[in-house]
Amino acid sequence: MTNLQEINAALERQNPFAKPPFLNAQDIWGKEFFDFEPLNAHASDAVFKALEQIRAGQYPTTSIAITAQNGTGKTHIISRIRHRLQSQGGALFIYANKYGNPQQIKQGFQTILADSLANIGSQEVRQWQELATAMANEALRAANPNNNNYFPKDLIQKIEKFEEAKPEEFQTWLKKLTKTFGKIKDVNNPDIVRAIFWTLSDEQNLYAIKWLGGQELAQYKANELGLPTQNQSFDAVIQILALISEYNEIVICFDELDSPEIDPETSLTRAQVVAGLIKELFENLKRGVILSVMMPGVWSNKIKTLPGGVSGKISAQGNPLELQYMDGNSIIQLVSLWLAEYYKAKNLVPPNRIYPFTESQLRSLASEKPTVREVLQWCRDNCNPGVEPPNPVEVAFAKELEEDLGSALDDNYLIANALLFSFQRLIGQTAERVTIEDVTDKVRNRRKDNHINFKIIGKDSGHNVSIGVGVLQQASGKSLGPGLKKLNDYQSFGLTRGCLVRSKSKKITPHVEKTYIMPLVKQKGGEVVPLKEEEVKPLIAIHAVYQKRDVDYKVSDLQIFNFIAEKGAEKMLGASNPLLQEILSDPSYEVPSEMIEEEPVVSEEAEAADGSDSDNIEEGIDNLLSQINQG
């Protein structure tokens, strides 16, 4: 046993329970996962039993609902399922917890689907690449029955060499592979097949995934991949799921459905909006399990009241499964397992497995029917009784900052709402010489707009100002143009300044610059504000804390607002945030040159390769397969 004084000193230096007892998407997809497997094993086992029954042909698709209070372990169950699938295989995995604009829930799910499949699966490549390899193997066998199946890593490696050595021939090969696949499978949209095959390319897979998620590609990139600039539709989702079902089961998990906020346009809660989506997925999914987790009140008061048999599609296996509270034995098991990890990492041997607690202390907690989260919070607060517990808002903020934004940086709705929330906290304050009197998302005739997200109304050195802010991350001028046109329309929207918020990496064509950007910036005193991840991330994080304040984090509005006021300079919040400052500051009358796209030069050889084809597609694939093997 280690000297007790040494153990106590270690506990004072680092609280074993300091990590926030909340799980988010980062924990779902991350490698590390602390799991107390006996707790609520019945819930995760139900999903794997359903997968076994689907494989046995008992039924093709089912759905399961789990109900439990906050902190009981709903997200933990999802993380357990994800990590077991990653280690053992058996199904592709989709995780939905951020739904974007409720008016565009189907488009939002297309992005969720693409982002989830971009994560690493059980074969140590992206899940997209697992699917693409299975499809390619079938097409290659159709071209030559003697071809052996490739493992994803092997095929990706061969393609990388081929693409690097002979890029034009590789594009021709991929085109022919797509055609052959279309001959052996009923394909509604061959572009989706082509894009899935592009995920095997090291150079192009991120662009292909972006397109598969419904996002726009720049015209030159779309031409390079042989795809339309955009394919945003629920039909695309259904076709992707159908292709997955040809080769594998799929598990789709819906989380964070408990938000009480009501969409003003539909008068529905988040759970009700998502329920409509789940119903359609259930009716179209050919092979898989849909899992939804929510609080009991959400199920009883929001889901079961929906018409059209929606609740039966969300929980086809019957009544929702309930998660259990912790009893004395499970509390001791959880704490001892948690401390074992800590002491092992520190190379310490404690006097007993639950030190510094006693068994009677831990068993007494069971009388309150605590959740896992409540037990871990109690341990954190009582591990070092003399140490003041951390600010709960700061703990929640730090947890949200762990989230990888990924495609969230393309989500106009998410970014605009984070900006709106932060600017509303500045009403009555002066920043960058602008005294803010009001911030409203009712930008025209007291109605919202899809492009101008909100207006900042106030005074700048005594003069009235009305700044219209539009977050426009769309790639092409086809979708970007309408938003820029509105930002130039000062009269209709009552603006004195139009402000475009956009990432520098989102290039603008010379035509769009000439037609919309130059008039906005040079003639009307508008501004182009570069969107930087490090500046917007704290705003998204604090807005997420606010959205989850009642359900997850149990903090008040006042606590959040005080945290912004007290920690703003340190955490890049409030008036100290550079992005908010730039939106309010005097316009520079300049357009960042890095944002303007240079027209690509297409070689005659590339054009010829793109236009070439072979009458004997199968022979072409077989020949080019030999080139892969030789390469």
The main pleated sheet reads as: 6 strands, mixed
Q: Estimate the mean pLDDT confidence.
A: 90
Number of separate helices: 29
User: Unreliable runs, pLDDT <50, ≥5 residues?
Assistant: 601-621
Distance between the termini: 60 Å
Which overall shape is indicated by the principal axes computed on the Cα atoms?
A: globular
Instruction: Find the structural class using helix and strand composition.
Output: alpha/beta
Helix content: 40-55%
Radius of gyration: 27 Å
Lateral arrangement of strands in the main beta sheet: 8-9-10-11-12-13
Can you count the beta strands? 13
Strand content: 5-15%
Structure characterization notes:
- With about 625 residues, the protein is of the alpha/beta class.
- It has 29 helices and 13 strands.
- It is globular.
- The N and C termini lie far apart (about 60 Å).
- The model is unreliable at about 600-620 (pLDDT under 50).
Keywords:
52% helix, five-stranded parallel beta sheet, 631 residues, alpha/beta, six-stranded mixed beta sheet, globular
Write the layout of secondary structure elements.
Layout: H1 4-13, H2 25-29, H3 41-55, E1 61-67, H4 74-88, E2 92-96, H5 105-117, H6 127-143, H7 152-165, H8 167-184, H9 190-198, H10 205-212, H11 219-225, H12 234-245, E3 250-254, E4 262-263, E5 268-269, H13 270-284, E6 288-294, H14 296-303, H15 310-314, E7 321-322, H16 328-346, H17 359-365, H18 372-383, H19 392-401, H20 412-424, E8 430-431, E9 434-440, E10 454-460, E11 463-471, H21 477-488, H22 490-493, E12 497-502, H23 510-523, E13 527-530, H24 533-547, H25 549-553, H26 557-571, H27 578-584, H28 604-611, H29 617-630
Parallel strand pairs: 1-6, 1-7, 2-3, 3-6, 11-12, 12-13
Antiparallel strand pairs: 4-5, 8-9, 9-10, 10-11
Helix pairs in contact: 3-4, 6-8, 6-9, 7-8, 8-9, 8-28, 8-29, 9-10, 16-17, 19-24, 20-24, 21-23, 24-26
